């Protein structure tokens, strides 16, 4: 049996506890997050990229961190990975406008090479500093189904031992009646060098999202 998430003092379905959760509605939280200085990443990004979607969404998709396009527009999943995600959602029969989409980390982290800004993974301390915002989103939205896209989100939900390659697509209890699973991040699919592997991973992403759509029908 897979390990259950660690107990969290706020009842938030995260494997890694948080010390505090900011108060307020999603609109208030979004405003507060704009001024967050809990880690150095605010110096990188153009703006905080907070979650987007209905306040009472039954499904929350959690990605890893914003990229260049998200940083410019202030909206999650609007770049190439977001376009691939939209395609996968469409094939799975899920309406993006009915979902709440967010990221584990809310600022774009990058390194410069010439004039280019290249994505750089947020470190453990930066992820920990941003976890309070994700916890607040989970508490406000109270999704019944939570999908972790990529290793960072999956490990935030299920612990550091979780591996997408061997545990993706498996439902796990998250407390408060919620269920969660993890699957490929669209950007990971795009980075795969071989077309055959990209095609297979995209198929697995769609299959996992179809499982979400099926679970939604059971809730209805």
UniProtKB/TrEMBL annotation:
Keywords: 4Fe-4S, DNA damage, DNA repair, Hydrolase, Iron, Iron-sulfur, Metal-binding
GO process annotations (BP): DNA repair
GO MF annotation: an example: metal ion binding
Positions of the Uracil-DNA glycosylase-like domain: 50-210
Pfam family, one: UDG
NCBIfam families per UniProt: UDG_fam4 (TIGR00758), UDG_fam_dom (TIGR03914)
Record-stated family: Belongs to the uracil-DNA glycosylase (UDG) superfamily. Type 4 (UDGa) family.
Name the UniProt record assigns to this protein: Type-4 uracil-DNA glycosylase
């Amino acid at each position: 049996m897979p390990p259950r998430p660690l107990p969290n003092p706020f009842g938030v379905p995260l494997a890694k506890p948080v010390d505090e959760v900011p108060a307020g509605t999603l609109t208030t939280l979004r405003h507060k997050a704009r001024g967050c200085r809990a880690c150095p990443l605010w110096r990188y990004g153009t703006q905080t990229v907070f979650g987007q979607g209905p306040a009472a969404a039954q499904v929350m998709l959690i990605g890893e961190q914003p990229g260049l396009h998200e940083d410019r527009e202030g909206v999650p999943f609007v770049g190439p990975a977001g376009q691939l995600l939209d395609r996968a959602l469409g094939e799975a029969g899920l309406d993006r406008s009915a979902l709440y989409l967010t990221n584990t980390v809310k600022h774009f982290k990058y390194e410069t090479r010439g004039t280019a800004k290249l994505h750089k993974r947020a470190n453990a301390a930066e992820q920990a500093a941003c976890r309070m915002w994700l916890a607040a989103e989970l508490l406000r939205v109270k999704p019944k189904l939570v999908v972790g896209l990529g290793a960072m989100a999956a490990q935030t939900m299920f612990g550091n031992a979780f591996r997408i390659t061997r545990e993706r697509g498996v439902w796990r209890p998250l407390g408060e009646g919620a269920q969660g699973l993890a699957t490929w991040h669209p950007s990971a699919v795009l980075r795969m060098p071989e077309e055959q592997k990209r095609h297979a991973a995209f198929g697995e992403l769609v299959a996992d999202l179809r499982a979400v759509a099926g679970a939604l029908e059971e809730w209805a």
